[in-house]
């Protein structure tokens, strides 16, 4: 009896399957890289690097007025020399050398992470993008979800704890790390452009921004933080009072401690598109909003995304 065409297609698909699944190879790759002192992080913005960024452990960026305790280290972007070493190791394993726990099949699977190929698909890209889509759909359906973003909102508790499997990418400095003469300074002592209640609101918005989204897990622990999510903060005031200067200073401070610098949108610049940080797709404002955005009145407004 002749076989149907689709049955032949299924046979050919099964013939291309490897003994190890993509999930198994990916899960084995992460601890192997950790043994080499490398941290693998999924990153939507790193398309050239197969949606991953490579980090190594290092000392935090020096900040005037802060003394970091011994043993506190954070994940820092890997440099070119380290990348070359990882490339040689993975290429050697793929060609038959001893892999120290990594098979030749797994090394070939990992090659797109260290040998960049613009616009070319790979098994590891298909796997991680499919996995992230699956997670997003699951969380949307059942709600909640835990997110290991690597934000240490109590970094002092990580000292002496093995955080290799849950590295620190960003942190909020402990109060005791600051010089004594500035420990008692409050937000209003430094940022003086806000009235009392508005200052409380902006502190709440910034506080929720620096600890990460609700459901974030503290590195090295199982502690989860829960809060009401805020997508944006809107600051309204007279032109020239210092809104942009103040907010840029706050955002630069967040960047020094490892956070990605949020966007500060000045509506006076007549921008018609706001890019969603979550999806990366441009969201066009309605025509009525665009008309308002070019008006003189909105020179009083700054939006923190």
Description:
The chain is α+β, with helices and mostly antiparallel strands and 305 residues long. It has two domains: 127 residues, no CATH class; 154 residues, no CATH class. It is built from ten helices and ten strands. The chain has a three-stranded antiparallel β-sheet with strand order 1-2-3. A hairpin with a 6-residue loop joins strand 8 and strand 9. The longest helix is centred in the middle third of the chain and has 20 residues. The protein is elongated and about 65 Å long. It starts with a helix and ends with a strand. The relative contact order is 0.10.
Mean pLDDT comes to 78
Please indicate the count of domains.
2
Counting DSSP E segments of at least 2 residues, the number of strands comes to 10
Structural category: alpha+beta
Strand order of the largest sheet: 1-2-3
Given the C-alpha coordinates, what overall shape results?
Answer: elongated
Series of H and E elements: HHEEEHHHEEHHHEHEEEHE
Low-confidence stretches: 12-18, 267-285, 290-301
Compute the gyration radius: what is it? 24 Å
Q: How many H/I helices?
A: 10
Helix content: 25-40%
Percentage of β-strand residues: 5-15%
What is the first-to-last residue Cα distance?
64 Å
Largest sheet: 3 strands, antiparallel
Secondary-structure topology with pairs:
Layout (H helix, E strand, L loop, with lengths): L4 H11 L6 H14 L2 E5 L9 E7 L15 E4 L2 H15 L9 H11 L8 H20 L8 E2 L17 E2 L8 H4 L3 H4 L5 H15 L22 E4 L6 H14 L7 E3 L6 E3 L6 E3 L2 H7 L7 E4 L1
Parallel strand pairs: 4-5
Antiparallel strand pairs: 1-2, 2-3, 6-10, 7-10, 8-9
Helix pairs in contact: 2-4, 3-4
């Amino acid at each position: 009896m002749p076989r149907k065409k689709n049955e032949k297609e299924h046979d050919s698909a099964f013939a291309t399957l490897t003994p190890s699944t993509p999930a198994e190879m990916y899960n084995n790759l992460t601890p192997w890289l950790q043994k080499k002192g490398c941290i693998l992080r999924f990153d939507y913005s790193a398309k050239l690097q197969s949606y991953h960024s490579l980090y190594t452990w290092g000392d935090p960026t020096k900040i005037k007025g802060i003394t970091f305790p011994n043993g506190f280290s954070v994940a820092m972007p890997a440099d070119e020399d380290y990348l070359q070493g990882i490339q040689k190791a993975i290429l050697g394993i793929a060609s038959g050398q001893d892999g120290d726990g990594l098979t030749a099949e797994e090394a070939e699977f990992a090659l797109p992470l260290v040998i960049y190929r613009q616009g070319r698909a790979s098994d590891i890209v298909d796997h991680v993008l499919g996995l992230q889509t699956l997670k997003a759909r699951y969380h949307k359906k059942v709600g909640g979800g835990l997110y290991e973003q690597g934000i240490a909102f109590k970094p002092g508790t990580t000292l002496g704890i093995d955080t290799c499997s849950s590295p620190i990418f960003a942190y909020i400095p402990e109060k005791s790390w600051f010089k004594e003469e500035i420990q008692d300074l409050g937000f209003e002592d430094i940022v003086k452009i806000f009235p009392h209640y508005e200052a409380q609101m902006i502190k709440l918005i910034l506080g929720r921004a620096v600890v990460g989204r609700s459901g974030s897990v503290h590195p090295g622990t199982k502690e989860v933080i829960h809060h009401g999510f805020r997508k944006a903060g809107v600051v309204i005031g007279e032109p020239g009072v210092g809104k942009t200067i103040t907010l840029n200073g706050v955002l630069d401070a967040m960047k020094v401690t490892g956070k990605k610098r949020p966007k500060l949108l000045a509506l006076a610049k007549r921008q018609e598109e706001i890019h969603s940080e979550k999806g990366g797709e441009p969201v066009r404002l309605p025509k009525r909003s665009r008309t308002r955005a070019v008006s003189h009145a909105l020179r009083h407004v700054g939006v923190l995304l």
